[in-house]
UniProtKB/TrEMBL annotation, chains A, B:
Protein name: FAD-binding protein
SUPFAM superfamilies in the record: FAD-binding/transporter-associated domain-like (SSF56176), FAD-linked oxidases, C-terminal domain (SSF55103)
Coiled-coil annotated spans: none
One GO MF term: FAD binding
Ranges for domain FAD-binding PCMH-type: 35-214
Record keywords, A-Z: FAD, Flavoprotein, Oxidoreductase
Pfam families according to UniProt: FAD-oxidase_C (PF02913), FAD_binding_4 (PF01565)
Species this protein is from: Desulfoglaeba alkanexedens ALDC
Keyword field contains Transcription: no
Length: 467, 467
């Protein structure tokens, strides 16, 4: 690996947009994983042309380029663990176009997700994907990771809203993919190949997004279940009733206890599960839908159901869900946060497996998340100074992943692979599919300058053979 | 190109599943384009393993393999214009699994789309994609072409329902892509790379599809407009009213005339446009939605609006739309059927451009299709024995494509590229994106055995350079 040519980079972006001091580089050594890797330099390009010039330098000098937005990813995807340059896209932060008639937006990757949502709302439109980080994460990062969120159960994930991209490839200048229309079958679907590719294939410099009409109103319900299977059967029954909730969130007993110990909200700590359910849509149906959902909850063993129509009541019901993260901080200083996903009927088996793991490895494991699409956030609480606890947690994660695959599930619903899950990618992806992915990586990034060592495990024999 | 090893093929599939006589091969020389190419042999594999063995033979002997379902494609995508073997997937026709609780189906590629829809309906579930050919086209073909249909405006296209695939690659055995859950971000999105790849990257042998709850009911409206812009503004106004119709079909004056001359339904031949609009969903809202849509039509200049609630009334309103194809057969023996797509607000400009082309080139051009997503089927009526008319039509197509690109549109909304549109692919796809596609093609099919000469133009300098 050759040194990063700082003078050449400075000629591309200008002095104020290149960070080289140790202190400044250190601030770009992190994301929301607890990993750390200090880059050799940090650059802030202002255009696709500058990105293109930086990639050309990277190919010539052989240094890694790690594209990055707000750094809110969970899996170390924006860490420069092989050195090189962190390429920060926050200066590309314009909403270039918002077309209410054709219901689409064209944005730069540095636009914060919540900002686009607010802008769309001013036109009665809606950009549904809602990762928890939406008030600071960027649309470029959402595209790179294929971000999801609670609303995915009804509205889908980021990939379902990306119509087209401008992408700078390491082999040349910017290309355009996709179209400004939902229908387009002209050549390969490069758009969705780049969505979720975690900055390993190209640098996204422009995004065309589909918007939809905003729902008129929303109703919120909170239901308490003494029995886990009853809660799971409720999830299926709601989905089968032809009502697709806009949110169907789940908290297990460990989560309820953690939140109650933290906040004293009066949550029933003997309950096995709480479901937080929202229905949205037309004024004329949401009350009917909410009543139907409430009836389904009660028929399936809910001992308590609360409904909210006003914003204040809604905030009260969401309080427990929103307090999970701070509450967990009181159990242990650290957590290993997985986002495994199983077909929704398998959730009870998953939760029971996790309880068994918690008992066998003497760990506190807290489960909550998006029950409607089977995406459960499994938090193994750890004190990172406790080497033994950390070791037990790591073993529990491996067993968890095996169980998820046995249940027909997937290792990551919305966080991605990055560094933290790359040792496990091949547990899920078969050898032929893995080879196909690596062939695509080599075809589009033959010098392997873009986010090297992410997603693919770098030290496998296959790689030595391939690159 | 070496000869096809018939004996080796026969050892793979057995004698009854290999066609070699001229008569039998001739029946696999066509699709819904008017092109013709007789293959050297036709094979009917019964499993992914047999497909894998056939591809291995193709790599060894260097003959082309052209995967095919029902052959209802419009662009010559299943024609063996370079010889070789047509690989027919109709024996792989089992619905392997229909899971109502997790709302998914696992099918083989030879399952006819309508059959899955009927099976899903028995469980109160719905597989929305509805290409016009759905009663005979196969799901494998739908996946290969990324098929759409009228319902796409509300429900999306085939790619939005494919969760995962089993695909046999020319470089090895079958791989699995995707997951059984909506959320999964584990490695590159190979699933959507194969959707719409027109049999050029791999042979799909199994498909996991997402199903959704069936809508409770549907209402149909037919609205007549004396002014084209009024009809177009109605389309936008309906979409902006927070009602997304499940169908929003458009017929222009030339179409109305053709159908009326054929059937004498009493259609207003002086009208500039007819919109056929459906709303579906909950019993409690469809009447309200239909009333709102009717009001919007009248506010925007509709001179006549009819509504249907019963199946009989609905059939009557659909009669004109369904009669277009037979009616066109009375104008000319042949037609050039394009499926250009523009942002929906640009439809009036597109229609005016087409009228101007019809006048300048002395052609009958009939436009109808999916106005909600801007996907307009443009039919240039031709007598294929009239060389001059054919030449004029071809020139009109070229001008049409230029206009569509200038309007921010795409050359194909749902038919794909195949042979007929391959000379125009690079009008829409920029050089860098085209090169990226070709790099992917070479990475996954280095021997170029799968559907060679489709999608990419085979005789460009780039190809000579690349392969």
């Amino acid at each position: 690996m050759n040194a990063v040519p700082l003078e050449a980079l400075q000629r591309v972006v200008g002095k104020p947009n290149l960070l080289v001091s140790a202190e400044e580089r250190f601030t770009y050594a992190f994301d929301a994983s607890k990993l750390e890797a200090v880059p050799d330099a940090v650059v802030f390009p202002a255009s696709a042309e500058e990105v293109s010039e930086i990639l050309a330098l990277a190919v010539r000098y052989g240094f890694p380029v790690v594209p990055r937005g707000a750094g809110s990813g969970m899996v170390g995807g924006v860490l420069a663990q092989k050195g090189g340059v962190v390429l920060v896209l926050t200066r590309l932060n314009r909403i270039l176009e918002l077309d209410p008639e054709n219901m689409l937006a064209v944005v730069e990757p540095g636009v914060v997700t919540g900002r686009l949502q607010a802008e769309a709302a001013r036109h009665g439109l809606f950009y549904p994907p809602d990762p928890a980080s939406l008030q600071f994460s960027t649309l470029g990062g959402n595209v790179a990771t294929g971000a999801g969120g609670p609303r995915a159960v009804k509205y889908g994930v980021t990939r379902d809203y990306v119509l087209g991209l401008e992408v700078v490839l390491p082999t040349g200048a910017a290309i355009r993919t996709g179209a400004r229309t939902i229908k387009s079958v002209v050549g390969y679907d490069l758009t969705r190949l780049f969505v979720g590719s975690e900055g390993t294939l190209g640098v996204v410099t422009q995004i065309t997004l589909r918007l939809i009409p905003a729902p008129e109103t929303v109703r919120t319900l909170l239901a308490v279940f003494p029995d886990l299977d009853d809660a799971a059967r409720t999830v299926s029954a709601v989905m089968r009733s032809r009502i697709i909730p806009s949110t169907l969130e789940f908290m297990d007993r460990a989560t309820i206890e953690a939140v109650e110990n933290h906040l004293k909200l009066g949550l029933p700590t003997e309950a096995e599960a709480i479901l937080l359910i929202e229905v949205d849509g037309r004024h004329t149906v949401v009350d009917e839908d909410a009543a139907r959902v409430e009836a389904i909850c009660r028929e399936h063993g809910a001992t308590q159901v609360e409904r909210a129509g006003t914003d204040t009541e809604r905030d009260r019901l969401w309080k427990a869900r929103r307090s999970i993260s701070p509450a967990l901080g009181r159990i242990r200083s650290g957590k290993i946060n997985e986002d495994v996903t199983v077909p929704r009927t398998r959730i009870p088996e998953l939760i029971r497996t996790i309880r068994d793991l918690a008992a066998r490895y003497d760990l506190v494991i807290v489960n909550f998340g998006h029950a409607g699409d089977g995406n459960i956030h499994t938090n193994i609480m750890v004190d990172r100074k406790d080497a033994d606890e950390l070791r037990r947690a790591e073993r529990a994660v491996e067993e968890l992943f095996r169980a998820v695959i046995d249940l027909g599930g997937t290792l990551s619903g919305e966080h991605g692979i990055g560094i933290t899950k790359s040792p496990f990618l091949q547990w899920e992806v078969d050898e032929g599919a893995f080879e196909a992915m690596w062939r695509i990586k080599r075809a589009l990034d033959p010098a392997n300058i873009l986010n090297p060592g992410k997603m693919f495990v770098p030290n496998r024999a296959f790689f030595a053979k391939g690159s």
